[in-house]
Amino acid sequence: MTAYIFRRLLQAIPLVFGILTLVFVILQVAPGDPMAIYMHPSVAPEVLEQMRENYGLDQPVHIQYVRWLKSFLSGDLGTSLTQNRPIAAILAERIPNTLLLSGTSLLLIFAIGIAIGIVQAVRQHSKLDHALTLGALFIYSMPSFWLGLMLILILAYRVHWVEWWPEALKFPPSGMDSVNYDLLSTWGKFTDRLDHLVLPSIALGVSSAASVARYTRSSMLEVIRQDYIRTARAKGLPERTVILKHALKNALLPIITLLGLYLPFLFSGAVLVEVVFAWPGMGRAIYDAIQQRDYPTVMATTFVFAVMVVIANLIADILYAVVDPRIRYERERR
Amino acid sequence: MSGPILQVENLRTYFHTADGLVRAVDGVSFNLGRGETLGIVGESGCGKSITCLSILRLVDPPGRIEPDSTIRLGDRELTRLSEAAMREVRGNAISMIFQEPMTSLNPVWTIGGQIAEAVRLHRGVGRAEGRERAAEMLGLVGLANPQRRLDDYPHELSGGMRQRAMIAMALACDPDVLLADEPTTALDVTIQAEILDLLCELQERLGMAMIFVSHDLGVVAQIADRVIVMYAGQVLEEGATEGIFSRPRHPYTEGLLRSTPKLTAKLPRLATIAGSVPSPKRWPAGCRFHPRCPHAWDRCREDVPPLLAVDQPSRCWLEEEPQRRTRRGEAGG
Amino acid sequence: MRTGLFVIWGAVLLFAGCGEAERAEDSAAVPDAERYGGTAVVAASYEVNSMNQFASIDEISQELQNFVLLTTLIRYDEDLQPVPYLAERWDTATTRAGLRLTFQLRDDVSWHDGVPTTAHDVKFTFDRIKDPATAYPRASLLALYDSAVVSDSFTVALYLTRHPGFMDAWRTISPMPAHILGGVPPAGLRHHPFGSESPVGNGPFRFVEHRSGDRWVFEANPDFPEGLGGRPYVDRLVYRVIQEPTTLLGELIAGEVDVYLVVAPAQVAQIEANPGTEVVTYANRNYAFINWNGRRTFFQDPQVRRALTLAIDRGSIVEVARQGLGRVANGPVPPFHWAYHTDLEPLPYDPDSARALLEAAGWVDQDGDGVRERDVFKASFEIKTNPDATRQEILTLVQADLAKVGVDVRPRVQESQSLGQDIMSPERRFDAFLLGWRADFNLDDRIIFACSQLEGAYQWASYCNPRVDEILDRVAMMEDRSQALPLWHEYQEILRWEQPYTFLYYDVRANAVRQRIQDVQMDIRGDLLSVKNWWIAPADRR
Ligand SMILES: Nc1ncnc2c1ncn2[C@@H]1O[C@H](COP(=O)(O)OP(=O)(O)OP(=O)(O)O)[C@@H](O)[C@H]1O
Ligand SMILES: [Mg+2]
Question: What mean pLDDT, rounded, does chain C reach?
């Protein structure tokens, strides 16, 4: 297995570099200039020239690329052209935040999606099943950006005028923690953080949760028909054990593949959701950087995202082997 | 010996499907004595499996055991048990093994775990004991190195080994009744024989009763004490194995015997019963076999024959009017 | 149109009035000693670039630098006249080459690490700004300054060419700590961790924390000299970045944000309706305009440009798209400026005259398709703008207005960077576009309207009038305002007549404030102008 993981990582390297080079080219081709934020009549053209020189932006594109690549390979991600600080420092602040948000979302997606899928499969063709199918379809077709705004409008805004609305169901509209976070107890910090996670993680995850539910439902229905489920029942196992132990683990196999597929979606979704919820994560860093043509930052964030996606796929792969002994067997033999 | 361990009476299992009522099992009755092996034979689709599943109440919706059906295990009426009480029966008092060893074991759990699971459930024992029992059972069914096999996954075993594991699983709680639904059909001939020997031996050793379903008459002849012949959801003939095979009374049984290679080895080619099994949605009126019966006459088309005669009952009007037997039927294919 | 405007101003005043009344009561009840404490949260949709004066140019960075973290040498009073701040006093003396400006600094201001702020910090800052290698974005502020000489620890003399408004630079430049940044090579100043990770200031608030994309946290500086107002009332000041206006509004209503800077016009009514929040408005330095590309045939004729302005109902643009937050503009000199021409009426909304003017200029709809043409040219063009809800709305209104006079407009919203590229390009890749300017206190419009700049990056109108050049050149060096005023007026009259831009409106800034924050004063000098006087009654603190 270790050899397998190692091989997969090696295979990912050219892919990641391909992506980075492509992003570099696209950024260079796209109109715009990282120094545009300084364009103002009171900023003399010579000053802009000097800035470009200070940043090495006056060099030909291929030289810039080679320079960037060199420092990148030596572990230096460079300096943000617009924030004027080391990109590594920015990433160190942002990555954990994005991981927290997308991790929570991922948990939500799979916990809720799978639970709903199971309920639907077990109660196939019931009213509940139909209602959930319809609901999932509705949610699935909602863009996360719009959903985020709606959540804010309703659960963080309108409810302030609804007297009977319980305080616990009013959520903060944005940010990762309250202003007085530093002054809270450990438990207070935890609940505060959780409170702030609710809306963005729902906005980010709910449509994927809907599709996980659909996949789980059909996969579960497929599995429930299998002979070994009858065997399990014939043993006298309670239905709960039959479903949760014997059926679920098999039904999860195709779902795990989704994990690897959803992560890129999650990250790209995070871009908009982080903007809506003022979540200080990587998504916003890349969004701002692209807007301002801060190309070293774009490159670095792209790199991190690409690596995260590669790792996520690897995790999905490993999980797949954990759940399915047949895969494990094949890989070990190879 | 006291009374039969399992009494099935007027068992009717219908599927209430969207496009009509499927009367898969339609009034089946039989008794299973303690330690006895009852063979059930019949063409594909005649309701053998559904009968077995009905006994365990494992028929999936839209299938349903109709009211007035009785399945008595000792002095318990299974059709009236609560679901929880029924779970106590499954895998404990009555076990079942299935036709497909390849798909009947859960691919993502170990053999040992799957066997121990039933033991722990019914015996209330801990993990270690369950595991021990599983190893013991694997040894019993003749797997070499049972301790090591415990942690194997189904895909690591051959077909024959899997069926042995299935048997180990079914017998792990010392059931009174074992329902074996074509346990050897999917296996190679040599392995088939091994499994059959194993079943016979275990049955003797453990003293349980067994229902052995097969459409291979040769196999049934080898293993069963008594045989019931099913057709179109009904029992057509019932009797001691010896009697059924040497003196079949029902034309269908005769047809079946003629189409079995072992017993008619001298025939140049296999005889078959003319026509095919009718659709379970519309069983023919009168005797359900009459469209395919070489002897059928008017009465067969109109009146449903009861199980006539006592020692080897047969559901055929010929029992009352033997003179109606035609030569055409005997000539066969 | 005047009436319309009056209503807007009235509403604003009325509202401010309510707030004041409530406050007066509270203020009386809470003695000064009990005003210390609490956290004030300021939020806006834009990111703070840096605390480094050498690197940033954005408005919010400058506000935080000059009002929160650092201290400027002087400030403006309400009449925009210089008053002492870090500099206790100053005097000027005429020299052979021009002027010597001597600042006498306070001796009781220290950097937050304890080191006193001295004349050396001023000289250091001055020298770096003048050094081209620093690439100080606003180096033009000191273009006519020559050198700085420290005469003692708290006295620094600056040598400059005489010019009007020479003090203005010192309102917006805060000295930077020489003891920290002195050893940094000029080209490296901009990347110094000082900007975002470890700023050390000498202002009323000390830097606590910066989480990128999230917040800046400052705390009260207890050592801030009494002479400058002493320790601020609030314990902590937090600046949060929340890009999405809806989210920002939600935070304000939820009470997590106390001050919401630059409220979207559509949200003003909601904030006013909500108990506990109010809107503070003031006319700021921005104005919106449509730039006509003077290299295009259609826009070359001042008559045509005037017709376009007459045809656009700017009053209803202010009403509809800005919800009344603005005032119809009549030229490039906004009302805050001392030379604003109060007697000059903006061109009226007069589509009939517009049609007549277009006809007179030869633009007639000959083929009856509703769009005028002259020779082979059609009165049809594209107006670009950046993705901004208000500007998009304005474009739609403009399109409708101009259609009524037979001019076809295709609105086009273009991503900011590529729009920037198009309008800055020497080929001037646009017909017209809608954007805004922020006018400097020390106004100098040569770069946007002078003939000498025709090939320059900002002469988007390709407008050239020798008389305007002459006026702008003269007022730029004329220190006597009474002498300059007639010239300034003439400039405004010419531009009103020739309309190189269609000046749409002077911006009115709307900020939302929770009423628990007391003594908030915001005006053209800055949103955070009074931040060290803000206070929160003990019962209202978080
Ligand atoms: N889910 C179902 N829905 C409708 N009809 C069904 C269903 N399951 C079984 N049946 C019907 O029940 C009848 C009996 O099926 P059963 O599986 O008992 O046959 P069998 O005798 O075991 O045949 P085989 O030898 O092929 O195993 C079949 O004809 C089939 O059409
Ligand atoms: Mg069957």
Answer: 90
Among C138, C119, C127, C121, CA closest to C201: C121
User: Is it the case that residue C16 has pLDDT exceeding 60?
Assistant: no
The alpha-carbon gap from C351 to the nearest alpha carbon of chain A, in Å, equals 34
C488 CB-near residues (< 8 Å, 6+ apart):
C333, C339, C341, C471, C475
CA quadruple B1, B2, B5, B11: dihedral positive or negative?
A: positive
| Chain B from 53 to 82: CB within 8 A of any A CB | 53, 56, 58
Of C135, C247, C422, the CB nearest to A278: C247
**Is B46 close to ligand 1, i.e. is its CB under 6 Å away?**
yes
Q: Look at the pTM and tell me if it is higher than 0.95.
A: no
Say yes or no: CB of residue B22 within 6 Å of ligand 1.
yes
Ligand 1 atom with minimal separation from the B230 CA = 21
Q: Where are the domains of chain C?
A: 31-258+516-540, 283-508
User: pLDDT (tens digit, 9 = 90+) per residue, A144-187?
Assistant: 888 888 998 888 888 888 888 888 888 888 889 888 888 889 99
CA A94, distance to chain mean position in Å, is 13
Average pLDDT per run of 10 along chain B, which is 333 residues long?
82 90 89 90 88 91 89 89 90 88 88 90 89 89 86 87 87 89 81 85 87 86 90 90 88 82 48 75 86 86 82 85 71 39
The Cα C341–Cα C327 span in angstroms is 14
CB B12 within 8 A of CB B69: yes
Which residue type sits at C18?
C
Six token digits for residue A295: 């190309």
All residues of chain C having their beta carbon less than 8 Å from the beta carbon of residue A83 are 49-50, 196, 212
CATH class of C31-258+516-540: alpha beta
Instruction: Report which secondary-structure segment, H or E, holds C82.
Output: strand C82-84
The structure tokens listed for B104 are: 């009947």
Domains delineated in chain A: 91-289+308-333 (1.10.3720.10)
ipTM above 0.90, yes or no: no
* Gap between the Cα atoms of A296 and A81, Å rounded: 7
Could you state, in order of their start, the residue ranges of all structural domains in chain B?
103-173, 247-330
SS (H, E, C) chain B: CCCCCEEEEEEEEEEEECCEEEEEEEEEEEEECCCCEEEEECCCCCCHHHHHHHHCCCCCCCEEECCCCEEEECCEEHHHCCHHHHHHHECCCEEEECCCHHHHCCCCCCHHHHHHHHHHHHHCCCHHHHHHHHHHHHHHCCCCCHHHHCCCCHHHCCHHHHHHHHHHHHHCCCCCEEEEECCCCCCCHHHHHHHHHHHHHHHHHHCCEEEEECCCHHHHHHHCCEEEEEECCEEEEEEEHHHHHHCCCCHHHHHHHHCCCCCCCCCCCCCCCCCCCCCCCCCCCCCCCHHHCCCCCHHHHHCCCCCECCCCCECCHHHCCHHHCCHHHHHCC
Would the pLDDT of C100 be above 60? yes
Span C283-508 CATH architecture: Roll (3.10)
Mutate to test the pocket of ligand 1, among B21, B25, B49, B66 (most ligand atoms within 8 A of CB): B49
Distance C79 CA to ligand 2 centre (A): 99
Q: Does the CB of A228 have a partner CB in chain B at under 8 Å?
A: yes
Contacts of C142 (CB under 8 A, 6+ apart): C126, C129, C130, C169, C173
A245 to chain B: which residues are within 8 Å by CB?
109
pLDDT score of C493: 96
Looking at the complex, report in whole angstroms how far the Cα of residue C80 sits from the nearest Cα belonging to chain A: 20
Whether residue B246 has its Cβ less than 6 Å from ligand 1: no
Least CA distance to A277: which residue of chain C? C247
pLDDT at A99 over 50: yes
